[in-house]
Amino acid sequence: MADQNTDLDHYTALRADIARAAKDCARDPSSITLTCVTKTIEGARLEPFIAAGHRVFGENRVQEALGKWPALRDIAADIELHLIGPLQSNKARQAIEAFDVIETVDRPKIAAALAQEVQHLGRTPSLYVQVNIGEEPQKAGVAPRDADAFIAQCTREFALPIEGLMCIPPEGQQASPYFALARVIAQRNGLAKLSMGMSGDWPLAVQLGATHIRVGSAIFGARAPITLR
Ligand SMILES: *Cc1c(COP(=O)(O)O)cnc(C)c1O
C-alpha cells in the first residue's frame, strides 16, 4: 500500500502542474476544479487530503460511496462528492442521497427516476449530462448529435436543471477533437461546467476549456484493473 505522504506529494505536484498549465493558456487556475477520483481507495487514505483542505472527490459506484463517504463527511461538512460512473434508475434515490454532483445523466429513464426522487427527497444535486463523445458502443453517454435534445428534455420534461457536460474520449486516440466537440456542445447549450480530462490527458482538457478535471491514478498510483464506461 502506498503511504499517505506519497499520495499528498503527488497531489501537491499535480496542483502546481495544473496552475502552470492554466497560466500557459491564460486561464485563471481557480477556474479549474480538481476532482480527486478515489474509487477503490480506502477511506483512511483520504483523510490526509481532507485535512489538507481538499474538498472535491469523485467516485464511480453508488455502493462504494455509501460505504466510504458518510464517515469522511463527518470530518468536513463541505465535501463535494461527484458521481462519475454509470447510474441505474433503481439507485437514483441512493445516488441523490450520497452525491452532491451527478455527472452521468445520459438517458430519459435516468432523468425520470432522478426527477421523481428529487421531488421525494426535496434535494437536487448538481447534474451534468454525460456525452459519449467518441460514439463508442461500449461507453455510456448520449450521442453528440442527441445531446441538445436530451438536455432540453431534462430541463423541460423533467424540470431537472443541467449544469454541465461530462465526457471520456476514446482511449489511444488524440483527445483534442473530442474535448473541442464537448466544449462546443456545452457552450451552445449554455452549460457552465465541463468535466473532462483524466490522469493521461488533463493538460489538453485544460487547454480546451475543462472546468473540472477528474484525476485518480496520477495521485494514488495505478488501481487494480476496472472497466471504464
Ligand atoms: C477512474 C476514472 C477517472 C480517473 O482516471 P485516472 O486515469 O485514474 O485519472 C476519471 N473519470 C472517470 C469517469 C473514471 O471512471
Provide a compact summary of the structure.
The protein is α/β, with parallel strands linked by helices and about 230 residues long. It has helices spanning about 5-25, 45-50, 60-75, 90-100, 110-120, 145-155, 175-190, 200-205, 215-220, and strands at about 35, 55-60, 80-85, 100-105, 125-130, 160-165, 195, 210-215. The chain is built from 9 helices and 8 strands.
What does this structure look like?
The chain has helices at 4-24, 47-51, 62-73, 92-98, 108-121, 147-156, 176-188, 202-207, 217-220, and strands spanning 33-37, 56-59, 80-83, 101-105, 126-131, 162-167, 193-195, 212-215. The protein has 229 residues and is an alpha/beta fold. An eight-stranded parallel sheet has the order 7-6-5-4-3-2-1-8. Strand 5 (126-131), helix 6 (147-156) and strand 6 form a beta-alpha-beta unit. It is globular and about 50 Å long. The model has no long low-confidence stretch (mean pLDDT 95). The chain binds pyridoxal-5'-phosphate. The site of pyridoxal-5'-phosphate has 15 residues, from strand 8 and helix 9.
